[in-house]
Structures are given as structure tokens and as C-alpha cells.
Design goal:
Helices cover 35% and strands 23% of the residues. The chain is of the alpha/beta class. β14 and β15 form a beta hairpin. α10 packs across α11. It is globular, with a radius of gyration of 27 Å. The two termini are 40 Å apart. The relative contact order is 0.11. The N terminus is likely disordered.
């Protein structure tokens, strides 16, 4: 079953029309420049004729030959390039999440993600944190292994990049990590934050570069830990880590390791650098001193945006309009069990990035967000699915078809006010 959303087609059409408008404007500027250059050439030619005439009439000498100059028409560069990147939180691989796509003897997650497709595929790129593995059956909480149909559905919904530097990275060992990376690539997406072997690390250098309409964006991902596990000796660089004491207290920030990787990113001269951080404490909204230390370090090293996950709660977004620096401490759960208060709602954060093509500088100029809600089954035969809160509320109040229940409507109204308080502090 393929995704088919009228709204996403409209949104993509608007983006296409905007690019066409810019291209038309660029062509008009080019024509105006050519006309101006030709006019200038005609004026120069006339001036040359007048000068020659004056010289001819005032001097008995043979007139000297003059060199004619042909104006060079330079292709004008479009003044700005505007791109939008969407970010969601944790994709938690649990029994409930796996079961949400169960269809007979197989899996189909199309309906689970259908309603949030406009917020993902409508952006120029979309990024999530994949907190699980792709290691085959058995699927669910104990193994944290997901059916391949789940990541294929994420790709079909518009996701381009999956963070794998998180607490589930090596739940199934280094071989499981390698299988997960392969599975993500087979689904048509790119993983970021971990590598299967030395050859892959040498190739990726520990980060992922994307060219989005000519804007070079570097994505780098780190995690506070790999669960309660430790990386085998000699394989410590398989997963990008934030702390030296990643198996215990998370107090000793790995300043050297973080700086080394960000220096490697800087050598590629990206227009924008975005760090995806799996950090903080689960089911806790407090920001630790070490997190603040990491923010300061990364911003000093040229990171433009920090997108956090792991706490399962939506936390505050901080944005400096003057510098363009943005920190979202946690986007909460993109999808999870939603069985704990505060974990059933989240948002998809969209960053607008504008590159000045004349100066070569780029900046995060604004952000927007789509509040989302995990609708859990209320009757037999229903399955978990993600919905956009504002649209669902509007549909309920208009008594539209397939409106949510009274209980879900009340819960979403409450969730929306909490999301707005965190997204617009």
C-alpha cells in the first residue's frame, strides 16, 4: 500500500512553485543584466567614435587603431537558496510499536505514519532517531529488532536520515550494528553516528554530508551510552560517544573525541553543521550541567543546531535569532508505547536555512513545528498511529469523518498547550 496524501502533494507543489518563482526571478535578473551590459557597450562604442572623431579632426597624424572591448556577460548567481529540514524524535522499537504494523502474517506500517507524511516528505530532508536494530525476528522489546517493513515505511513517509548513535546501537552486538546499518541503506536512507568497520569509518569519517539544493549540510551524531553495554576493546570508535565514562556516571565529557570529529567535519567546509545528540536522562526533563557543557563546546566548534533525543519527553527549544544557533534538548518520542504520562505527544521540528550565494554564508533563519500525538487503540481491531494534533482537533470540532474520540480530543488539547510552551518558550 503506497502513501497517497493530497496535502503532501499540495505542499510539494507549493515548494516547486516557489523554486520556479525564484528561477523566473533569476532569469529576469539575467536578462536585465544583459540589457544593461549591452547598453553600456553601445554607450562605450559611441564614446569611442566621438573620441576618434575629435582626434581625427584635431591632429594631422594618422589615427591610431583602438582596441574594441567586448563586454563579458557573467551568469548571475541566484541571491539565496532556501531549504527546510524536518526532525523527529525517537522511534522506539517495542512490542506495541511492532504490533502496530501487524497485518495478517506480515507487516504494513503505511497507516501508522500516513497522517504525518506532510510534515516529513514536505521538507527537503527529514531525520529521525532509530532506537532499535534490524536483526531479524524475533521482533519487539526484548530484542529491540524491527521488521524491515517499518524502516521501509519511514522511507516512504519521507525520511532520509536515521540516527543510530543511541542506547540501542549494539543491543545485538557489533554484527547486529552492521546488519542495522545495511538494513537502513537497503531501505534507501542513510545512517549516521556509527560504523560497521574500519573501512566504513575511513569512508564516512564518522559523519554524513548531504547536498540539499546546493546547500552542504553536515550531520554528526553522538550518544551518551550504548545502554548498559561497553564497546569491545579496539572497537570504541564504532559508535560516536559523548562521554569517556559512558558505562557509568556520564560526567566526563569526551572533549577530545568530540572536538576531533567536529574538526574533521570543518575540513569539509559545510554550510551548516547539525549535531544529533542522544543524551540526558530517560523520563526526566532536567538539563544537566554536562549537557550545557556539551552545548557550549559544540557551538564553539561550529555546530549550528543541536537536536536531542532519549528523554522521551519533549523539552524546550532555544533559538538565537541573531546568530541562528538552535538547541532542541529533546524532541520526545516520534513513536513509542505512549504508556507514560508526557510521552504520547511530541513534535516534528522544521528548520529553515538560507544560504547567501554571493557571500557563501548560511544560517538557520527560523523554525516551525508540527505537534503530533500517538493515538493508541481504543477498540478491538484498531492499531497505534501518529496524527497531527492541530488537524485532528480541527476535524473533531468540525464533526468531520473519522474524528477522534472525546477522550483523545481532550488529551490533544492539553498536549497542544504543553507543546507550544516548549516550542515557543
Amino acid at each position: 500500500m503506497a502513501f497517497d496524501s493530497e496535502e503532501i502533494r499540495k505542499r510539494q507543489l507549493r515548494r516547486k512553485q516557489e523554486r520556479q518563482r525564484r528561477e523566473k526571478q533569476r532569469l529576469q535578473q539575467r536578462r536585465q543584466l544583459i540589457i544593461a551590459l549591452l547598453a553600456a557597450a553601445i554607450v562605450l562604442a559611441l564614446c569611442g567614435v566621438v573620441i576618434l572623431a575629435v582626434k581625427w579632426s584635431s591632429s594631422p597624424k594618422e589615427p591610431q587603431a583602438t582596441e574594441s572591448t567586448t563586454p563579458t556577460v557573467t551568469e548571475p548567481v541566484e541571491a539565496q537558496t532556501v531549504i527546510n529540514i524536518a526532525f523527529g524524535g525517537d522511534v522506539n522499537i517495542t512490542d506495541k510499536v511492532v504490533a502496530s504494523g501487524l497485518s495478517g502474517d506480515s507487516y504494513d506500517y503505511t497507516n501508522v505514519f500516513m497522517d504525518v507524511v506532510p510534515a516529513l516528505a514536505g521538507a527537503d530532508a527529514a531525520v529521525l532517531n532509530f532506537e532499535g536494530n534490524l536483526c531479524g525476528a524475533p521482533y519487539g522489546t526484548q530484542s529491540t529488532s524491527a521488521p524491515p517493513e517499518l524502516v521501509k515505511a519511514l522511507k516512504a513517509a519521507g525520511v532520509d536520515l536515521l540516527q543510530v548513535a543511541n542506547s540501542c546501537a549494539i543491543n545485538n552486538g557489533l554484527l547486529g550494528l552492521a546488519d542495522t546499518l545495511d538494513g537502513i541503506r537497503e531501505a534507501g536512507m542513510e545512517p549516521v553516528g556509527a560504523n560497521a568497520n574500519d573501512e566504513e569509518l575511513e569512508k564516512t569519517k564518522g559523519f554524513t554530508l548531504m547536498s540539499i539544493h546546493g546547500v552542504k549540510v553536515a550531520f554528526v551524531a553522538f550518544t551518551k551510552s550504548v545502554g548498559s553495554l561497553g564497546l569491545p576493546e579496539g572497537s570504541e570508535d564504532r559508535v560516536n560517544l559523548l562521554y569517556k565514562d559512558y558505562t557509568s556516571t556520564y560526567q566526563e565529557v569526551d572533549t577530545e573525541g568530540i572536538t576531533k570529529l567536529l574538526d574533521a567535519v570543518a575540513l569539509e567546509k559545510p554550510d551548516v553543521t547539525i549535531a544529533l545528540l542522544h543524551w540526558g536522562s530517560e523520563y526526566n526533563s532536567q538539563v544537566s550541567d554536562s549537557q550545557k557543557q556539551i552545548v557550549e563546546l559544540m557551538q564553539e566548534e561550529g555546530v549550528d543546531a543541536i537536536i536531542g533525543t532519549h528523554s522521551h519527553y519533549l523539552q524546550e527549544v532555544q533559538y538565537n535569532e541573531q546568530t541562528g544557533a538552535l538547541v532542541a534538548y529533546s524532541l520526545g518520542d516520534f513513536i513509542g508505547d505512549a504508556d507514560k504520562s508526557g510521552t504520547g505527544y511530541s513534535m516534528i521540528l522544521e528548520l529553515e536555512i538560507i544560504k547567501d550565494n554571493r557571500t557563501g554564508t548560511a544560517k538557520i533563519t527560523s523554525y516551525d513545528y508540527t505537534p503530533i500525538y500517538t493515538l493508541t487503540p481504543e477498540a478491538e481491531g484498531e492499531s497505534m498511529r501518529l496524527i497531527r494534533i492541530r488537524e485532528a482537533i480541527a476535524n473533531y470540532e468540525a464533526n468531520g469523518l473519522e474524528k477522534v474520540s472525546d477522550a483523545a480530543y481532550t488529551a490533544m488539547k492539553s498536549a497542544l498547550s504543553k507543546i507550544e510552551a516548549r516550542a515557543e518558550p
